[in-house]
Fold each of these.
Amino acid sequence: MRSFISILFFLHVYANGEGAGLEILQSRKPCVGKYSNYKVIQFKTKSGKIGRWEILNTIRHPSPDNVNGVSAIVRVRNATGTYFLFNKQFRVPTQSWTIEFPAGVVDTNETAKEAALRELREETGYHAANVTFESKGRQPTFSSRTDDLQKHVLIDCQSTDLKQASPEDEELTYPLFIKESDLWHEIRRLETKYDIASNVYTFAMGIAIRDGLI
Ligand SMILES: *[C@@H]1O[C@H](CO)[C@@H](O)[C@H](O)[C@H]1NC(C)=O
Ligand SMILES: *[C@@H]1O[C@H](CO)[C@@H](O)[C@H](O)[C@H]1NC(C)=O
Ligand SMILES: *[C@@H]1O[C@H](CO)[C@@H](O)[C@H](O)[C@H]1NC(C)=O
């Protein structure tokens, strides 16, 4: 039933001309999990070539923004400068410590903004934060392999209100503030020891390019 719905969805996309002329011949889920499914999609290109796609279909809770998750760029501006908050987290898929933006899953009926503030509260105990920017659209996390989608928000907060985190999985997550003016230098240092999430790396490169560092 679900794969039938997926086929309908893809046919719908195709019919709207958004499918780049791909015709979906078959969509199967040979492996169904609790958080994600393994999905195999067979398609035909305009020229008649048959292709096969293997994707990780992440299970999305029904919510107004229709995304799986949200990444938060948490900014603190005080007398000594501008700082961004990152998490150093041990990640099982890559078996590595990874520098990431605070992020979380969007729950049922929750907006991405609400999810970001909830995660920040859970991770840092922080309450008085302002969401000063929210992406209008959705950002795929790895569009060639998965249908996982997220939004990005910018949260401004005052460092004095941040409490030390006591997350449930505290052994696996460490908050890390990095000053904007040191960010590129710090990332270059950290990348010799840890993996850096793609969006964090791109963010740091953007700042380095702006500052003429690269
Ligand atoms: C989500 O919202 C819908 C529509 O208002 C409602 O029927 C449903 O019970 C809600 N689900 C949860 C888990 O709150
Ligand atoms: C959040 O917004 C309120 C109201 O505009 C403002 O008073 C407060 O200073 C803001 N806090 C931060 C951390 O920007
Ligand atoms: C500003 O915030 C950063 C990050 O939380 C903190 O390390 C620093 O001590 C703060 N500076 C002042 C003057 O409060």
Amino acid sequence: MGARASLPIGLLCIAIANIKTLRHGRVAWLPANLVKLPIVTSRANMQSDLVPQPTGTLVVPNVPDGLGEGGSAIRLSLIIPTYNESKNIPTLVAQLDELLAPALGTAYELLVVDDDSPDKTWQVAQDLAAAHPSVRVMRRIGERGLSTAVIRGWQAARGEVLGVMDADLQHPTDVNLKLLQQIDKGADLAVASRHVADGGVSDWSLIRRLLSRGASLLGLILLPGVLGRLSDPMSGYFMFKRAAIAGVKLDPLGYKILIEVVARGAMPWIGEVGYVFRERKEGESKVTWRLYSQYLGHLLKLRWATLPKSRFFRFCVVGASGVIVDMGLLFLLSDPRMLGLGLTRSKIIAGEAAILSNFLFNDAWTFRDVVGIQKGMGPKLRRLLGFNAICLVGLALNVILLNVLFNFAHIERYVANAIAILAVTGWNYVLNSKLNWTALSVSSDARKP
Ligand SMILES: Nc1nc2c(ncn2[C@@H]2O[C@H](COP(=O)(O)OP(=O)(O)OP(=O)(O)O)[C@@H](O)[C@H]2O)c(=O)[nH]1
Ligand SMILES: [Mg+2]
């Protein structure tokens, strides 16, 4: 009787002990001949230990989400983006632990961000975590691409310093310590560069060298304020202080995450460290021609996002759109190959059409803040009439200039028109901002108590 009563209690104790240990991926003790409890395999359990995939906008938080062991903050979070790198990741992790543990103790983490690779890189990395506690793994599902993988990693990272390096052993691991030294000296960003002393590429074909240099040159033309600060803007191996990028909305396109970070972040001090880019031994490159067009798109996107959009700049952008309307109509109406109407008549129609389209854009964008105080159709109509009156005087000046340049100076009609338009842009801007939109804002301000 006593033995039968103690059996359920014994089973309960065993179950509690094993539930506890199962949470940690191990099974403590089970009497093999007594009961068969459903044993959760360590692999399935590890999946639940994956780092949750952040969603929403790509903003790195200000405060690291958690502390290292013993309450000390994690100094470095190194993101390792992977796609089909199962053959490389074990070697990389072993090399990094060997390098970083003596320098940082437990105050670092290696965050592998895998885009659900068909070769199950994420699982290989998870299996490494048992022997390498620095390893954390994010398995991304439903989102793909190198740049966003890196940012998602930074979002989930707990370190004060955030870094990134390739998983394919092309980036020599020891450079990490030199990069960290740069940060310790005060740099906001430290970049591993192939184009400074001690840097280079091991065995690149001429065409690949040219493409890499050409891409840098194009970037230098379009974004001199960003690429002019970096000897190797194409580098995918760098680290920076969290504060330099925290709270900033990132929106990259393609592969070149460094230019995104420099363009949008606050990084007055950039340090560089030379390194030799090695050849890939295992796995395949993911670089495709599509990445080059994405790179161009990324440059243009950043160019637009970082332009100082003063009111005059916006006025000129709108003016430029008006030039297209004006020139297009002038061609349709006056060109001998089209309707062939008289130059002056055509110009007046083309000019008035451009004035109307410019008004709509200026009202909606250039002077949006001023317009916000004077809502409704009545004030809008008054602004339209004011704008039209000022621009009609500009148009009269434009027509006179066009005729003088075309008929007397014998300048080609479209060149003459462009000169005339430029000349009256200043007139239009000054008078409109002084008398039209700004006058509204002053009068409405005056009504405030
Ligand atoms: N998570 C994730 N990682 C990626 C993706 N594309 C590439 N990677 C990883 O990003 C790193 C760099 O990619 P690579 O294809 O090696 O590009 P590369 O080093 O510039 O070019 P190669 O010299 O041709 O290898 C590697 O660790 C890749 O596994 C992606 O879409 N998602
Ligand atoms: Mg590579």
